[in-house]
């Protein structure tokens, strides 16, 4: 067997290589020009800022805008007309309301201003044993609580009179049968 053939590799001539490099430097090829490095001022690498488009939804994700469940009509339920409340009106220039349990003092103050156009000096609240919230609305000295109470029809005389008239009309029907009275009782008449 013959000895294996040696791979012949030609070494490039040093002079020829130098001429080639000199020519490349003169013409300015990109392989030999060094890229200047960007100066980094932070050790943290951040991804580049990309284009962020505004949202352009095909349909609304919420079908209707949310309704304010605690508006001024909901906050102030009704005024209290007990004897102690009347005493507060006369002596302390204070109106007494039953309010929504979720209403805070600022919301109560705003609701009184919006509904009755009166300025409240301060509001005190308490939660009654039956679970309702009572608010004592102290008015500023330029408002008189008694006048305001009359203005907002505090004492419901007209409503009471209407109910009394309805009961008198129902009194005509006192000789009705028990079933008829029961039906009227469901509507709201008392016998």
From TrEMBL:
State the SUPFAM superfamilies in the record: Ribosomal proteins S24e, L23 and L15e (SSF54189)
Query: To which protein family does this belong?
Result: Belongs to the universal ribosomal protein uL23 family.
Q: What positions does the domain Large ribosomal subunit protein uL23 N-terminal occupy? A: 15-65
Gene3D superfamilies xref list: 3.30.70.330
Please tell me whether the keyword Hydrolase is annotated for this protein: no
Instruction: Give the GO molecular function terms.
Output: rRNA binding; structural constituent of ribosome
Keyword annotations for this protein? Ribonucleoprotein, Ribosomal protein, RNA-binding, rRNA-binding
A single Gene Ontology CC term: ribonucleoprotein complex
- Is Ion transport among the key words of this record? no
Q: What is this protein called?
A: Large ribosomal subunit protein uL23 N-terminal domain-containing protein
Q: Which GO terms describe its biological process?
A: response to high light intensity; translation
Q: Which HAMAP family match?
A: Ribosomal_uL23_A
Task: Cite the source lineage.
Answer: Eukaryota, Viridiplantae, Streptophyta, Embryophyta, Tracheophyta
